[in-house]
Specification:
eight-stranded antiparallel β-barrel; mainly beta; Immunoglobulin-like; four-stranded antiparallel beta sheet; 412 residues
């Protein structure tokens, strides 16, 4: 039995170690926001810690997806794991009439018409087409990855007026003068006066001697003694006292200490809180059951979220603008076994689901490849201390998604 308990505890501890957080660093193109599983974590470069597992890492700029990759954080690695997100570029094709005009993108000279590039970062850009003797053609565009934008600039004859930039005035620097420090007067120590104590002298106590006068003794006159006849003594009768019977007191037996009886059967009710390390989501529930040596239980857990979707897509098959919510529901039943007085183990199965929702094509939809539902399995331990119970367990949905739960309750 000890080997079974040790093997069970070892398996649970290995499951917890598998979800220990690992330091990571994600690097994206400058000026973009970094998202992990639809949650913003930083900009340009983010350093933090994630639990082992597969995550959707994105870089966004002005609401557009610049980078999108599914990366895996490995477990049991002590060093920091580096992830550099590749840019999903957009395409731009610029032509003009007449040709040979200079092309500037975001203020930088990039070439002349006809001009074509396939390495333009998604987002807003300013495109300027200029040619001597013709008016400047200026347009702002919004590029999206995997989409090509074409611009045909028809230049009109005439010069574009040039506006001079206003000089930049520098604010005068104010100099602060240090305030003089006033010297504080020195405090001279005051002379201390010597104190003298005067003790009055006590006069010696003298007891004057008194003179004792003795009086002269008077002569004692002798009186004649009369003789009285002697009376015979009467014999005294001694009465014997009756002995009182002694009552025997009963001997009290020493009290024996009370021995605590072993509790063989209990009914327990626990309040639960679950946590999914892969997506940092909480759920709540109840667990109730009865056990003697072998018993049973039922457990219900949910994150209290519910969404209604009109479509369902894989993440790579649609353009997602936001990942806004997750649902987690689970119900399981199974046996409970008492290993020893106060220690129990349980394992069960049932149905569970974990779904991820977002906006795709301006409509709410479910992300199929990050949502799971089906058979749920779990295992855990329960400890009873007096009339209280503590539980800890691990739950999985289809052996693809897992989370842990902890509980506290009462037993009677």
């Amino acid at each position: 039995m000890r080997k079974i308990i040790l093997a069970f505890i070892l398996s649970v501890s290995m499951a917890f170690m598998a979800h220990a957080q690992v330091p990571v660093r994600i690097t994206a193109v400058e000026g973009t926001d970094i998202y992990v599983d639809g949650r913003k974590v930083g900009s340009d470069t983010w350093s933090g810690a994630l639990n082992p597992g597969t995550y959707v890492m994105e870089a966004r700029k002005e609401g557009l997806t610049v980078s999108h990759e599914s990366r895996t954080v490995l477990s049991g690695v002590n060093t920091r794991q580096e992830f550099e997100l590749a840019v999903m570029y957009g395409s731009l094709d610029v032509t003009s009439n007449p040709t040979g005009a200079a092309v500037r993108i975001d203020g930088a000279q990039v070439g002349s018409t006809p001009y074509k590039t396939k390495t333009l970062i998604p987002g807003r850009h300013s495109v300027v087409v200029t040619k001597d003797g013709y008016q400047t053609y200026d347009v702002n565009i919004m590029t999206i990855h995997d989409i090509s934008i074409s611009i045909n600039a028809i230049l009109k004859e005439g010069e574009t007026p040039v506006t001079e930039a206003a000089p930049v005035q520098q604010a005068p620097v104010q100099q602060t003068q240090a305030k003089p420090v006033q010297a504080q007067p020195e405090v001279q120590p005051q002379p201390q006066h010597e104190t003298q104590t005067w003790t009055p002298l006590q006069p010696s106590q003298q007891t004057p001697s008194k003179s004792v006068k003795t009086k002269a003794e008077k002569p004692v006159k002798e009186k004649p003694v009369k003789t009285e006849p002697v009376k015979e003594a009467k014999p005294e009768v001694v009465k014997a006292e009756k002995e009182k019977p002694v009552k025997a007191e009963p001997v009290k037996e020493p009290k024996q200490p009370k021995v605590r009886k072993e509790v063989n059967d209990i009914v327990f009710v626990n309040a639960l809180a679950g946590y999914g390390p892969m997506s940092a989501e909480l759920s709540y529930g109840l667990m109730a059951g009865y056990v003697k040596k072998v018993g049973g239980y039922v457990k219900v857990r949910s994150n209290l979220h519910s969404f209604t979707n009109s479509a369902e897509y894989n993440y790579s098959d649609a353009s997602w603008s936001d990942m806004f919510g997750k649902t987690r529901h689970n119900i399981t039943v199974g046996p409970v076994v008492r290993f020893c007085n106060g220690l129990y183990g349980y394992a069960g199965a049932g149905y569970g689901q974990r779904n991820v929702y977002g906006y795709a094509n301006r409509a709410m939809a479910k992300v199929s490849d990050y949502s799971y539902s089906g058979v749920a399995a779990e295992a855990g331990l329960m400890v009873r201390i007096w009339h209280f119970t503590l539980t800890a367990g691990y739950n999985t949905v289809g052996f693809k998604y897992g989370d842990v739960d902890f509980g506290i309750g009462i037993a009677f």
